[in-house]
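Self-study notes.
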Amino acid sequence: MTGTFAPHTDRPAEPDVAPAVSPTVRRTARRAVPWIVLAAIAVLVALSGLLLNGGGAVVGDPLSSTNPGPAGGRAIAQVLGQHGVTVRTAGTLDEVRSAAGDDTTVLVFDPQGNLDRQGYEQLSSIASTIVLVEPDFAALQALAPGVHAAGATDSTATAGCDLPAARRAGSIDPRPTADTDGASSPGSFRATGDATACFESSGGRAALVSTTHEGRNVHLLGSASVLMNDGVERLGNAALGLGLLGDHRTLVWYLPGLLDRPVTGAPDLASLTPGWVTPVVILLTLVFLAAAIWRGRRFGPLVVEHLPVVVRAGETREGRARLYQRSSARLRAADALRIGAIGRLAGLVGLPRVATTEEVADAVAAITGRDRPGILFLLLEQHPRSDRELIALSDGLAELERATADAASPHTPRTTGRMEQ
């Protein structure tokens, strides 16, 4: 039988290894867009948390004897220490009991309201003098029931009373400075009975009230800025602070904490977290929902389809081909084409599917008359560098299969040697 194709006489040159196909800058940037958007959302959430938290935290505890910042009280504590007063810090009522002696002044500053009325009543049995800075309603009810809060005051005032510390100060400036973080608006009081009101402004509102409770001296100071580092140097603020806090040999600087807060039941999540946590959690939830909708691939109700689902082989083949094309996996696609072609060629020449590529090439070359090196190059060694070369490889494999099928099952019948009637 005459061969359909002329045999190859020269073996094709060995091709170079195909270089790795690197993704382009545009493709890399397109893949990075979701991460850039998520990073921008994270930055927005962080900035929102800072804004909800007041733009930043106060450096150190306000009016702390160890805080050198503008809102601290380290300056007046050091001056008292230089004048022979032993300054001890306390964060709980038990620490106050341990630090206090027979001749003790206790300064109490509790802007968070951690100490309840029973705690204030216990102070009267510990200290000789109690100085309450910006006291709340519980403190007034426990230690000065004849004194009432009279609102904020924003003006300087002279002593106007016979209290020695007030007379030495002359006049004070209770207003906080603009750059002092942690300082609240200065408060004032209205005193009745035997209480002594000092530094009264218009309307009878006093910045300092002195009274007694169960034989103990109680001083009520309406402004913490008088004792803070940034306000102690104004007018007679320093003289007033030294006079109120330096009457006894020991000063216990008491800032009540969470351990002094009364326990009335199991704490809930809201009481254990800062106030800005809930808005941030809500914002994160909204961001998550927006990202889920943005990245979602399917909108509306899901399509109900009865199982089992029959998928045609052609759809699977086309889908896999599109995946190979999208990822530029030409060598992977070529290998898939070769594997299928080798299996079909083995069946055409009567070899099992487990036959090696060399055995299939020998059989195909023998039956078609083609050059064995050329068949091996097509089945094993050709590496397509572009889509055009991949299509050419596919066409070559298809042509080789057609030639092998024609050679194995010729269309023209052979002569049988019998006499035709």
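Second protein, same conventions, sequence then structure:
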Amino acid sequence: MPEMGDNGITRARRIVRWMLNMTLALVWFVALVSTLVGVGLESVSLARAIATLISLVVFSWLFLRITRAILNRSYATREVVLSGILALALAALGGGNPTGWGFVPLGWLSVAAVGVSRRNAVLLGVGTALVASPIMILAMLQDPDWDGSVTGVVVGVLLYNLLLAAAFPWANRLWVWIWQLAEQAHVGKEAQSRLAVAEERLRFARDLHDLVGHQLSAIAVKSELAARLAAHPDAAAAEMAEVRALARKALRELREAVRGYRELDLVAELGSVRAVLEAAGVDCRLHLPYRDVPPEVAPVFAWVIREAVTNVLRHSTASVCDITVRFTGEEAVLEVRNDGVTPKPVEDLGSGLAGLTERLAAVGGTLTARPNGSGEFTLRAVAPVLAGVPA
């Protein structure tokens, strides 16, 4: 299942709204067919047909308000009550045919039973079947073309209503439940991301305090002592020299700390992209050496992996992604291969690849990214390894 971003949640909400309103479309279909057949056979007057269709428009407006309330996690009690009364009136006014206007109460039930407890949903289903069945039974018994038994009509209509009353509402409840789970997962992921950022800030603050706090405290003490020794130039000069040395040490440690935060960790990045790919439904296969990648190429390879996986998620339809890292005493190679070749030219994949090319050029490496002719797309980064690294 693709990872759910804001656009994914919006699309899921739209799909669920369509599914909820699909029953309304079915109501309109059976009502129109029943009305056209009745007018054609002159069993329904034109005035009566117009009145039922106008009432159906009002019912539809209430129906749409109910589905909107469902997606907003509320229950439109007033609309449910009014549309339920109107649904029974339409069933009676339209003739009550089970496959015609008699279907309207069942369409109403498909959304009225969403957003209530299971017990209330069952009660609504049973109640709708029992109330709508007499209307349908009378309509069928009054049909001059009907020649069946009364018992058969009663049993058939009851089974028909109970079956649909058990199917439509629970199908819609399932759709809404799945959407709510997706939304909760999305909200939980955002909360987790915010927590991770907060924890990183705290760690950064703690590291800065541990690395630089002691040096700055010593500088303050030394500066105060130098001020007291102003009458003794030699001693004051010695103290100020120590202040200068402490300040340089603090600055160096601060730069090292910031550099560590700016550089990506290759091992951490591999774990991160694997989790992201698998969450998006892409099988990620890692082929890694048993030794650590040389430190002079590991950070730039981490940037390449991040950008490559971003392009896989944005621009391909991949189901499998292979990430291979290998190196010798002379060069290190990274390959990211996926089976979802993009129809776009490489130059249309954004400015990320250009930035990676510059990063690799800075360490004497090269970058290539192209389809390989077998339905796969391969990104390959090569960077030299400093002499002395064991093969």
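Instructor comment on the second fold: The two ends are 41 Å apart (CA to CA).
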